Amino acid sequence: MKKIQKISEMQEISDGLRRRGKRIGLVPTMGYLHEAHLSLVRKAKEFSDMVVVSIFVNPTQFGPGEDFERYPRDEAGDSSKLEKEGVDFIFIPEASEMYPPGYQTYVEVEEVSKGLCGDFRPGHFRGVATVVAKLFNIVKPDVAIFGEKDYQQLLVIKKMVEDLNFDIKIIPGVLIRDEDGMAMSSRNTYLSPEERQRALILHRSLLEGKNLFQSGEREASALLKAVREPIRSVGGLTLQYIEIRDAETLEKIENVDKTAVIALAAIVGSVRLIDNVIIGR
Ligand code: PAF
Description:
It is built from 9 helices and 9 strands. It is an alpha/beta fold. The chain is globular, with a radius of gyration of 19 Å. The structure holds pantoate (PAF).
């Protein structure tokens, strides 16, 4: 496994691989890797000959007062996990390499970035789309894998790829949970044991919604009520949003007559958590 820090070196390597007919799979990450990231790596291996994992805590997707400074980092731990997975390259640039002085170009995916997390993290998806577009031009992958936990992010990237004609296939990776049901996230490390216990209601109540759907309920307002009530009754969490949206377009829906996502964000202690379930798939 080779570690690359410079954009020009990564581009040369990718050009060489493509000339030799190798399919490149990219897994973009911000590091502090856990099992959910590794599942994306395994998916990348299924669809490509060479896997590149990027590790970059992207400053442009963090708003003022968010956790950019304290975002957990563990380069040595990440390298050994990726080595064990048989990853070929880690692309791990400095911020000054990605955003040199005078940098001024950003990518904005307009409609899909609105609502849900977009309302609570202004500028977040602009930062995500920008860095992912840059990674696509640097790594030149044939396929790139994004987890469904960040469901809105996945759709933002898909729309960007479609609108900007990137010749890259975006492959979703299913949301991976810990044994207790908690959606895996690098940010879970900020939770105290008591906060984590409280946060478990998020997944449990999403399952209430899913079960109600499976028993025949199709009205979005009734499904949302089934999710919201247990969260309210537990208390100690601030629900930022809970919504049901079309799983392909993220448009609002009143009746679930095709695949939909029930998505939520909540604050527990000082930690912002997101989670979702897909219904009708
Ligand atoms: O999901 C993430 O970890 C990040 O948003 C991504 C896609 C690596 C872009 O910085």
